[in-house]
Specification:
The protein is of the alpha+beta class. The chain folds into two domains: 3-265 and 392-407, 3-Layer(aba) Sandwich (Rossmann fold); 270-381. The chain contains twelve helices and 18 strands. The chain has helices spanning 14-19, 41-50, 105-115, 141-152, 186-193, 196-203, 205-209, 227-233, 287-297, 359-365, 380-389, 393-407, and strands at residues 3-8, 25-31, 57-58, 75-79, 87-89, 97-99, 122-128, 155-163, 174-182, 212-214, 219-222, 246-250, 253-257, 259-261, 300-305, 311-316, 347-350, 353-356. The strands form five sheets. Strands 3-2-1-4-7-9-8-12-13-11 form a ten-stranded mixed β-sheet, with helices on both faces.
Length: 408
């Protein structure tokens, strides 16, 4: 079996790397566009690494790409930004529900909707785990809107928040991964006829890929009302989000529970990925710089005054300094690059010297090939930015291979 894949919000190709390790996946079209920069650096890396033609890869705003120009495909994948996923209603008629302008979830929705009978049978999407509880005024509303919209398009969905380090990978990176199955698929029918807790804990694709145990009772509820009604009224009282770290939705019915990882294999530590030679001097901290780094990483209380003249004390706890080499890495962020001292950047101690992580080490933390992002015109800071935005390739590979077995 061979599955044609379309990769949206592709970055430097994490989904593609993970999926195409299995020869049965083939990315036939991809899109990467960064709105805040004129030069499309990530797209440059993507095109160079995967040798894509203009027909196979787009570096244009996805909202300007016509659905007819996107090849028909079996699997749609993408790691899209966490934004405000509410809907807006046109004044003309009740069918005029549209997503807010520029919100990328609605780009996915538009493609699925306009593909009609040719829409992909499977979805594989990734986002930050706070998606389950945003926005703060209506906890869980954004995820409810997404689930309802997929329900209306004929998909069942299962999701899990996965921390890559819980399963032996080198970085603590919590992300929500969710899979969509169109009602025409075998998996949809199996899910529909299954015991739902068993699906979440043993039978489902995510449970087979990454084992879990249940730690809190499951809850069930229905996504009642239209998209517009859910957008306006879901959890309006501001209670805790009803969506827990594991769950599914089929025919508007939601089951969700809290689970913990089950893993007994080898753990990759930060020391396992660090380079031991060929490190540029610019990554080492001078004695003067070290003082600033220690201050920013340390505990502190600072008196501040707000815009109304109110005086308050801002406090923050200490962070480990240097980062432990005997543990998986903390989550890498987009601001990881550059020499300026920072509370959140990584610093390790190696041979009695303190230094920042190199681009290659950051790539390894996301399980990318060494120097995947190295290209003329791409700075080390930009390479770090790419990795702060990227996903852990090993997670994609494992879920992808398990999905394929479930399709066969």
């Amino acid at each position: 079996m061979s599955l044609k894949v379309v990769e949206l919000f592709a970055g430097v190709g994490g989904f593609r790397l993970g999926l195409e390790k299995n020869k049965h996946y083939k990315v036939v079209w991809s899109n990467q566009w960064e709105p805040l920069t004129k030069t499309q650096h990530a797209s440059m890396v993507y095109k160079e690494r995967f040798k894509t033609s203009e027909k196979e890869h787009s570096d244009k705003d996805i909202f300007t790409v016509e659905t007819k120009d996107i090849p028909n495909h079996d699997l749609l994948v993408g790691g899209f930004p966490c934004q405000d996923y509410s809907v807006a209603t046109t004044l003309k008629n009740s069918k005029g529900l549209i997503g807010k302008k520029g919100v990328l979830w609605w780009a996915i929705h538009r493609i699925l909707d306009e593909k009609g009978s040719k829409r992909p049978k499977y979805l594989f999407l990734e986002n930050v785990d706070r998606l389950l509880k945003s926005p703060s005024t209506q906890r869980g509303r954004d995820f409810a809107v997404m689930l309802k919209s997929l329900d209306e398009l004929g998909y069942a969905v299962e999701w899990r928040v996965i921390n890559a380090a819980d399963y032996g990978m080198p970085q603590k990176r919590h992300r929500i991964y969710f899979l969509g199955y169109h009602k025409s698929t075998k998996i949809y029918k199996e899910l529909k006829n299954s015991e739902k807790p068993a699906w979440l804990l043993k039978l489902g694709v995510l449970a087979k890929a990454f084992k879990v145990k249940q730690v809190e009772p499951e809850t069930t509820f229905e996504l009642n009302g239209s998209l517009d009604e859910i957008s306006k009224s879901f959890n309006k009282n501001g209670n805790l989000s009803p969506f827990l770290n594991t769950g599914l939705m089929i025919n508007g019915q939601v089951m969700t529970l809290k689970s913990n990882a089950v893993y007994k294999g080898k753990q990759t530590l930060l020391k396992d990925i660090v380079q031991t030679k060929g490190i540029d001097n610019s990554f080492y901290l001078t004695s003067n710089e070290l003082k600033d780094w220690k201050y920013l990483k340390g505990a502190k209380k600072i008196e501040r005054t707000d815009s109304k003249g109110f005086v308050y004390t801002y406090s923050e706890g200490s962070m480990s300094f240097p980062d432990s080499l005997e543990k998986p890495s903390r989550t890498i962020i987009t601001g990881e690059g550059g020499q300026a001292p920072s509370r959140f950047k990584h610093v390790i101690k190696q041979r009695n010297k303190y230094r920042r992580l190199t681009p290659v080490e950051l790539e390894r933390l996301n399980m990318f090939p060494d120097n995947h992002t190295k290209l003329d015109g791409i700075t080390d800071s930009k390479r770090a930015f790419f990795m702060g935005n990227a996903l852990v390739v090993g997670v994609i590979e494992k879920i992808g291979s398990t999905l394929l077995k479930s399709i066969d």
